Amino acid sequence: MGNTLSRKKKLKKKKTERINNGDESDKKEQTEEDMMPHNVHNQFGDGQTGIQTDTVKPQDITVEVNVERQPKEDSDSMPSTSAVKTVKDEKDEKTTIKSKKHSKLMVAAIDFGTTFSGFAHCMRADMTKIYCHDWKSTYGITNKAPTSVLFKPDMTFDSFGYEAEKKYHEPEEYGDLSKWYFFKNFKMILYEYKKQLNVETEIDDMVPGPQKTKMKAIDVFSAIIKYFTKLLLEKAQKSYIDLTENDILWVITVPGIWDLKAKQFMRESAIQAGIPSDQLILALEQEAASLYCRKMPIFVEEKQDGDKTISQLPIGSKYIVLDQGGGTIDITVHEVIPEGNLKEIHQACGGVWGSNTINKEFENFLYQVFGDDVMSTFRTNNPDDYFEIMNEFELKKISYTGERESERMKISYSLIECYNKLKRMEINKSLGETKFEGKVRFGKDKAFLQKEFFQSFFDKSVSAIVDYLGNLLGKKSINTEDNPIKTILAVGGFSKSQVLIDEIKSTFPDLAIVVPADADLAVLKGAIIYTFEPESVTCRVSQYTYGVPNFTPYDARIHKGRRISKIGLQRKPMVDDAFDKHIEIGQILEIGQFQQEHEYYPTTEEHKSIVLDFYASEEKNPKFTDEETCYCLGILHFDITRRARIFVKLNASGTELIAVARVEGENQEIQGYFSLI
């Protein structure tokens, strides 16, 4: 697949001034000279020269802006962030984006998970036939493979999934891999590093050694995506000889709780992998799962004759979508509206309580029992045995039901030997002096864990999920008395855990807890459905408050201690870095609709482009962009032809943000470009 890399420009950052700040009197007092640049000399009509201020200086920085190529007018792909067709809604005079269905021959979806990943496809002619790629493992055929990848010493891709793990953990068969790169469970960096995430972000590999080696995260992600595209095309062309890479629309799923940086990172990874931007869309995982399960039989209804029947969620029903994966738990609330469509009534939320939390608790147990020194030596000398222990626990975790009084699992004898050698003590004897006495014992190559103790590995994750659900259900704004939430739709691989589902059921006995048979594939299959029915989700709720920094008139009552800049000939006192809010957290966003325009004025003579710092906050009304709750997502760039007022408006109703601007006196709208990573 040919590379379609983003066109990049180097820009000088320029200050802009928001015009409509302050109260009405402030606006009336503003003259043209107030709005002139505050860091350059300009000629006024009366021959006077503007004076350069001594408090605000020009700040020249070099930034790279991702400017994606514009698709042709007759492009049959889905609209993307690089090509926005806008129309006027005559009823409310608000600009909206019209969705249009794609006409590609094939749709392919990638579910890039923390623990497991996979891809699926279907032909446009029949969206009901969705085919998931099969992965071969020692346990049989699976529809997803571990998110593990192996790179050669020169950082070129070698293998993925079960094959990568087999090579890495069986070095005696494949030779010395000490200079290779192995990565596993690395998706979480996109959530954990969200404020610092960029194209230079690196991740540590897992190959044991005195010094950790790193690779760029974007290279790791893109290599896997490229491998998926290669596998799909090779397989598809066996059945459809004339099919080309241009006939495929790709959709990649992303967690709803990801911020805009992480979403753009995933898009750039796919573009680097060779997927053209106009053949790529992102789908929110919870929405994809919700669409897939939308027509599932959920309710048990009793007929007049006493018989019972299974029915779908009726119009007006509210339900929680609980996407439980390996890394994060992603939650949102949907309501069914006419024609089977959905609307989001609470912004995406959740936390880092996925099933990997349970693995971490088990790993902590091993370190407490055997000691840091033993575990460090064991992992360095026997990485394959350590992998087998963790893999054994993974299988036990998934299948655990709590029916047996104790759980037996394999423990490599090399770990027991390592302990005996370093500690000069038998492991079971040493347990008598710890809090684990009576809860666990070790055989030659086995461990026996008491039922209650084994289940304690789940406690941290399960209690966090249940507590969060309780708080969400306690919000009267969404869980109303006249139309309460009655259903929790649990999807994702972690939803297969009987311990978790039983705890949710016992905590919320009045709710219907629905777990589809293929809960781990609901997101993947739903992503394909989303490409055929993008209009099915009619509105979303903003996850953050978005805005840009600007000048605002100085007010001694509220701006005490703030830096004051004197602007224009009248030297009017202004305060910098005020948070100019465009969109508020919790705001309902109608799909395709732009928000109200904000006016700005460039404050430098160079007027070929406008660059705005773009901020996010989890507060409803942040006052300044340097507050602790605010962080800079990146920059927003517009190409303009002359120095004049510009009118900027945003559309955050989609999975990615869109911005357009209009120059005063011109009717044509200019596409904005976000550079967030």
Automatic annotation (TrEMBL):
Regions of compositional bias (Basic residues) in chain numbering: 1-16
InterPro entries reported for this sequence: ATPase_NBD
Biased amino acid composition, Basic and acidic residues: 17-30, 66-75, 86-95
CDD domains: ASKHA_NBD_HSP70_HSPA12
Biased composition range(s): Polar residues: 40-56
Superkingdom as given in the UniProt entry: Eukaryota
Region Disordered: start-end pairs: 1-95
This protein's name: HSPA12A
